[in-house]
Amino acid sequence: MYIKETSQAIQRGDVYLGIELGSTRIKAVLINDKYETISVGSYAWENKFENGIWTYSLDDVWKGIQSSYLQMAADVESKFHTKLTKIRSIGVSAMMHGYLAFSQDGTLLTPFRTWRNNTTEKAAIELTELFQFNIPERWSIAHLYQAILDEESHVEDVNFLTTLAGYVHWKLSGEKVLGIGDASGVFPIDENTGNYSEELLLKFENMKRVSAYEWNIRSILPTVLKAGDVAGNLTEEGAKLLDVNGYLQAGSFMAPPEGDAGTGMVSTNSVRKQTGNISVGTSAFSMIVLDKPLKKVYRDIDIVTTPTGNPVAMVHTNNCSSDINAWANIFKEFAERLGIEIEPDKLYESLFLTTTKADPDAGGLINYSYLSGENITKMPEGRPLFVRDVNSSFTLANFILTQLYAAFAPLKIGMDILYNEEEIQTNVLIAQGGLFKTTVIAQQILSNALNTPITVMNTASEGGAWGMAVLAAYTKFGNENMNLEDFLDQYVFVNPNSSTLSPEPQGVEGYETFINNYKAGLPVEEAAIKYI
Question: Can the keyword Kinase be found in this entry's annotation (predicted)?
């Protein structure tokens, strides 16, 4: 990347911005016409458990976005000696699902209920039976119907229901829209129409409890758009909200707001049929783009879509790396007591590398990384739990390997449904997420767990926000002129930098022993939830 060339592109506004609100970090990534990263800004945040609900405040949403943007813009000015005043197009992505309900005057009616909440079981089961289509507890429609079942007073005032990405996009552009991938986690999508299923909308609005309200489900849901559509423009108010210094001009094209699953597919070039990817972080999910419908409805398999509307089988787990992070912090505190300062990346690398001396089955140790409830294993609440018996080999290597094994365990259980019952075959899965910053270790463990080759790209740890920036750039092509699949192949991933690891027989066997012990011990986790 040449300084003069990039500086001129920034002055012309030939740059594209992707913003992603993840579960632990908000990122702003600016890219050029070659889809290279110019600058990155980030902000760390955490959800809070308040009044029995996992939530983030909207004040923190904007504090994080503004901090990320200012950090990125300052970096641009420092490196390229020009202020960032014009951006060709902008895209917003965020954690999918959840519940953000607003009144007619734009007032938030109840604190943001995130994907992490396992509070809608009754609604999800009832809607799944009615629709004959799996409605997970995380989905927005499940949250709305559960609020109806619970006779929450705010429901009668609902005027607009959206996701986190949809909310931010609305405030920046004034448009109440969603990208089809994010919308598919709000209400089921009809592949043929590229819109919410008319049949299921009709079933929902005719439910006795629903029809009692004056609002109609069609009027309160965001409009559905596909990748390549222009989803409005950055308004004057939106520009000031994004750049509190006031340098950014209004008028940028806005890409349809997407969920983190959609941006994960883009950043791993996994939007074609029969391709698949895995994203790991606070939660984890796999996405397999289907070439045919599943044989039946599964409560552990969600049907969502790519950013272009193709159906995807999604295995979503509520827990992945949070317990690893908690234990890593314990080791960091211990190091500090010894007077040793250690950078986070070095800490994780040191811990992960110890697993090269571990037993393949992790020495008989078991860990349940449930900071919150887990839908795959039917756990209503979180109780992180480490278990060993008197014959276990309790070494540091086995302990850390157990943490990594456990992080992927619910995903393994869900993926086995697709592999064993649906006989879905994938030649390779592309993975991304912070766990892969330490090369080889987590990648090899995931390959062994799923008995599938795993590819990690060089964008593995920054992929989502970069993927949203790519979707923002795609608006100049439009979905009519070039489909997203060809755009990614011909322009973005021309020379992909990646590495692939295949399953190791000994590691596969060891993980199978671990997962069998893990399943057998689930009643212990249930008891912990009940009694602790």
Answer: yes
